Fold each of these.
Amino acid sequence: MSDHFDVVVVGGGPAGYASALYGAAAGLNVAMIEKSRVGGTCLHVGCIPAKELLETAAVFRAVSHADTFGITTSEPTVDFSVTQTRKQKVIDTLTSGLTGLLKHRKVTVFDGIGSIFSVGDTKVVNISGGASGDVQVSGDNLIIAAGSVPRTIPGFDVDGTSIVTSDELLAVPELPGSAAVIGGGAIGIEFASMMADLGTKVTVLEAMPKIIPGVDPAAARVVERSLKGRGIDIRTGVMVQGHEDVAGQKRVTFGDGESVDVDMIVLSIGRRPYADLLGLDAVGVPLDERGFVPVDENCRTSVPGVWAVGDIIATAQLAHVGFAEGMVAIRDILGEDPQPVDYQNVPWCIYCHPEVAFAGHTEDSAKEAGFDIVTSTHKFNGNGRAMIVGETDGLVKVIAEKNADGTAGRILGVHMVGPWVTEQLGQGYLAINWEATVDEVASFIQPHPTMSELFGETVMALTGRGLHG
């Protein structure tokens, strides 16, 4: 058996490596087990490569509309091999940096599949199938951070070319001429937006009544209008029935006998927890009916000394939420009485065009929680910076608690759709989590001209003394 550790982390994605780095920074002796490259889904087949391809789409849009700025160019074309090379360089650079940071923090990284062998007073994990060979590691504490994999649909066997998940789409040598994106959630809409901007004819098939469920309806309508204006066919409230090969394409049937012929089917129906190889049943760590590991507010499982974080638990599948959960678990191990993650108020960002960003309550969830509310909405079409960059489609909406005297009080939710809003959400997120009132936030100066002025203006309007609206 190898050296004994204070903490053994199974999984090297965002939740796992955050646990390892944070624990090592606190002086703990940490081992981390990863079956692939450190960084997990987010770095290799998720956040980073997806946003790199979306940035390629943004550059293509900018060049295509350069004439509106008086810049004359030839019609742009896409060499997707260059795009993929650039994407991989970004991934490799970040992976190298993360590997170096783990080494600097003296985290011992094992390459292989971790299967939990024992969860008694000493936790034991078997490692196999990787460069580290067949070894065992032991620790006083165990953090399960095995992540997730894309969900699939029965009858839609992934072949990597005509039927793909996000994993395969992010590595294709060239984009298809046409595609059906099954699933209109955040991931599906990001892919639809990127592919359509780069020349693919896209159809989105979503079972729910509207795309990107959970997003404020006003923001979702802005996105849907933009996508349709760029030629994307969006079908909501339809169930996919099946597919067949027709003249070298895939004919996807849906709804009441409707169909569409496409070159590629993109399955984008969410991700499932990846507990397949962990051996949890044998050691008494339970799974719920959906395959998630149940935990309490400090990410403790029902087995003493075992925590679970990230996509393996039934919380928001976001890298930054995984970071936060990893830190909660480590602080709990250290006996520091951590502040649990406030899942109602975590920041969400969707990088389609136009972007979406939000935190806190929607109108409906605030009312369901018993709040009497007041709202303020301002559009980007009156914002000077938005006009300068030529991106005026979108809005900022702020939801506040209504005081007994009818005035607006604490900020409960901030919802944005439009240019660069994923970079603007920070002050709204801070306002919500600091339980700031509209009067407190309105007193802060917003630099001019900036996109962020619109948030300040929207809050100021709730005081009854807005400047521009």
Amino acid sequence: MPTPPSLEPADPLPTTPEATPFTIPDPQPQITVNLAALNGFVMLIALGLMVIGWVIDFAPLLFCGALVALLVALRITVPALSRWFVRFLTPDERQILLGVLGSLGAIAGFGQILGVYQRINQWLIKAKWDEFGSWAEWFGAVGQIMIAVIAVYVAWQQYVISKDLTIRQNTITQQQTIDAYFQGISDLALSDEGLLEDWPQERAFAEGRTAAILSSVDAFGKAKILRFLSQSRLVTPLKRDGLLGRAILDGEGGYAEDRVQGLRVIDLGVMLARADMSETDLRWTDLSDAYMIGADLSHCDLVRANLARAVLFEANLREADIKGVRFFYGPVETATPRSLTAPPDYETGAHTGAVIEKADFTRVQRMSEEQRYYCCAWGGEKTRGTIPGGCAGIPNQLGR
């Protein structure tokens, strides 16, 4: 019995490139042209033709060279300008630029339609050019004046810049001086036992340094020094050992105060007389017993400052913030200003108050009723006239 023929083909068709019975020939290699080099070569030839045509005075050759150079230049610059506009100008900015160019073109077209150029041409023909000589002299004079104005302006700007630099340099120098003072006082005041012992010579040196620096710094420098001295307890009368002179601890981590017989490391005395401390921060400073005759404390922040027994005769406290300022000790009804002869009584307040005669309290901020009563009672007529809210019903204890 004959065998049936197989259903599978004898020679299957190739399905992969590897099985392809023939090879496709490689294409011919392409020639790459450097357009930049070609443009440069053509540009050089065109410029050379222009020069030859110019020299031999042959117009057609000159025209052809100029035309080719222009076309090549446009071919080089137009794509570069297009890329620049796309890179550096947003679509809105490109629209604005196009609108400006269109507006200028429209104005030029309307000028031609309305005959503006013809009128200008007629005016130029009829103009008397000999008169322009005097006009030129006027314009020259105006130009000289403008140059002088510009020179004055430049000189003024140089002065302003120089002044600013000088102020900054002075500020830096002053801060360095204050830092050196802080370090010197700290080294002088501190010893192995603690706060400065009761050696008069050392206290005299400390007071001398303080008096010298307070007279050589501005208002803000004075405020920094006073805050340092107050927070360091160097201007507060401290209770001291009668034999050793050492400051006595109060049992709460600090030094005990003694307003009656205590000694200050630095006694401000008259260092602040007539001093300008306006618009500074003097919060929580101890200025008690200081002679601040005629001092300028206007616009100061004096919150919680101690001004008891301070001499504020003719002082200026205009628009200062005096919330919580201590002007006296004890009840306000029995408190009186300091006296040169009578000792202070810190229980009744007698002779513990500040001397505020002829002081200016105009528009002071956050004055309490006790402060107002004391200032009205012991300020005199001139001071009473500056107290916010008036002094109605409060007697004038000074009588003048």
Amino acid sequence: MKVRRAISALVPAGAVALVAYLLVTRGSALGAALVAVPPWVLAAAVAAHLLTLVLRTEAWRTVLRAAGGGGVGHRAVHAANAGAFLAGTLQGQAALPTRVALLRRFAGEDAPPVSRIALGDAPIVLFEVCASAVLAAIGSTAVGLIPGWAPWAMLGGSLAALTALRYLHGRFRAHRLAAGLGVLADPPLRNRLALVVAGFTAMAFLRTLIVMAGFDLPTDPAHVCLVLFTMGAVGLLPLGVGTGPAAMVAALGGSTTIVTATAAGMVVSAATVLAVLIYAGAVWLVGSATGRLPKPVADPGTSTVLTPP
């Protein structure tokens, strides 16, 4: 436990120290790289990430429908995800518990039990891993930073896990906890989820491609896929907004200057934060204009009431 806490503290501190070191030693070069990028690059990256957020919400809504949350309104789902995205920009691991808590507050009795909501994330994550494995396979063919067999092993493991979860759902269908995996047993919803995940993966690819092109970095599919895969892997660490620079440096540090890679990563992180703020602001503005903001509902057994994000 102490080792885990130490790692959790040292990893983000190391990332911050690296960025601080670059600002101190190469601040002028880093600033020049950022200023040289056309404004449309950031605007286009923000737009692509906004579409990613919308599609992620749609993926989660699809899972909720299969888990018995068909009565949950669009307002509650978007408001819950807006809060989750805001929390996720600071700490990726905070997104899921924030989403679960907000949905329970905004949807009340219409929301599925917490266990179903949490378990419902598993199919989305596994479909994402499948997409990431394909990206890694494309990236490894030309860049060679990871063994060629590793992506296919990851893809096979993910498909095996999906098959196992589908079997467990059928085996324990009568147990209410299994309802969280219901999307895997419903072909139309399962196919819909796979398409939505492919859609927001494509938007993430487009965002990365736009930023890399803006910095004159390699934009062939292999390099873009490698960067995108690295961002997903680095995103598992508690780096927050430092994910973009750390991933860019890790993926491209050997083929380009560290200043350019860091600047590109900073733009990716900036686009992510701006898109999340716009998404959350749009949810609040549309709800205010239509008088349809979700009303917080006290969760059974507690007097705590949360306000919309």
Amino acid sequence: MSKKITNREDDYSQWYLDVVKEAKLADHSPVRGCMVIRPNGFALWENMKQALDQMFKDTGHENAYFPLFIPKSFLSKEAQHVEGFAKECAVVTHSRLQSVDGGVEVDPESRLEEELIVRPTSETIIWDAYRGWIQSYRDLPILINQWANVVRWEMRTRLFLRTMEFLWQEGHTAHATKEEAVEETLRMLDVYKTFAEEYMAMPVLSGVKTESERFAGAVDTYCIEALMQDGKALQAGTSHFLGQNFAKAFDVKFQDDDGEHKYVWATSWGVSTRLVGGLIMTHSDDHGLVIPPKLAPVQVVIVPIYKNDDQRQEVLDYADPIYRELKDAGIAVKLDNRDNYKPGWKFAEHEARGTPLRIAVGPRDVKNNNLELARRDTLLKEIVTRDNIAGRIGDLLETIQSDLLQTAKNRRDVRTRNVDSYDDFLEEIEKGGFIYAHWDGTAETEQKIKEETKATIRLIPLEDSESGTCMVTGKPSEKRVLFARSY
């Protein structure tokens, strides 16, 4: 365990912050609640972005960009939407500053005729644009994604998990029929689930949110939920069926092939840099960050070990062909030949940064045509022959990827259980984890459970389960729903 990283069992919150710091992922900024994403953190986000972007394009979506500033009147057009975001909006009221006594202040003469909202989400500005894009059924569907930043005025923040400004993608699609829009909503939910499990090695459950938890302005909100090591749930992605709410608010109609004018059907969906926080809390340990190989900016680091200049040249001559062989095989490899740091320091640095695999090469390895492999996830080491190293490393990276997913699945499954009585629920929720229990479907019962336990309904499973009676009221329940405390 790194002396700079708090033990998870002692203080999980501090452990998380220590991992972010020691892995050099992000820093707090001078602006309260915002963060500076450092190169290591941004490279990880870029890899996530690249994988997701390709998945979006493979399902027919195109990228576009819409303004950061939204006229205040736009948010008033959809009542549920404005109510949901009203308390989180940053508002621009003036257009310039003026110099005063060596400093600056807002020029009172520059007050805007209409205030501008700094983008909390883009439904309103995008649907205003769609009104001009859509006239006929031939213009549909519109399948647009935007990579952007958003601002939500959060009072309690934590790096990556909840910040006032964060990076994300938001998909916004328009369809001729309800069936097409619902199909799109579920398709993108499946894209998120596939990404979380195949790239992040983070197992997730999927389902639909309750009415009180759904996105402001949506008809239905679907989500994926992951379980973190401390037993709390993390909402890792959402996909919303918006019905015709925004089309009606912005008067977006199309002429169908029968000549009738109809309102279009809409979806929106998004994930954010919160996924970086989810990755940290799913895999990392008391030594630092652990990154699944598919998302690692550096998958393999080669650390040469030598005592003098003669050994240095001998070891580097041996290590360089290994580096080139791995690079030619498409592996993200780094040769750490910095002379001003000792090997032990390099080992600790790459361990804290989560590099999946480390190769150590010294004079003895040169002599024996060997090298030492060390896995970041298990911290296990082995001496292997130099022969066919690219194939061996490629196979090992795949093994690490699948092992991380299986370990996380096992941890989640152990902490997932069914509960039938409210007394048992009150006891079990203190242990953390996922709990399936019956609920009578009312907002009153949902709120009572939330107030008394700080647990929320994370999702209603899409698949059928046995009917029963609500653990609180004894009223009929169609299926078990998923409860947890969350971030």
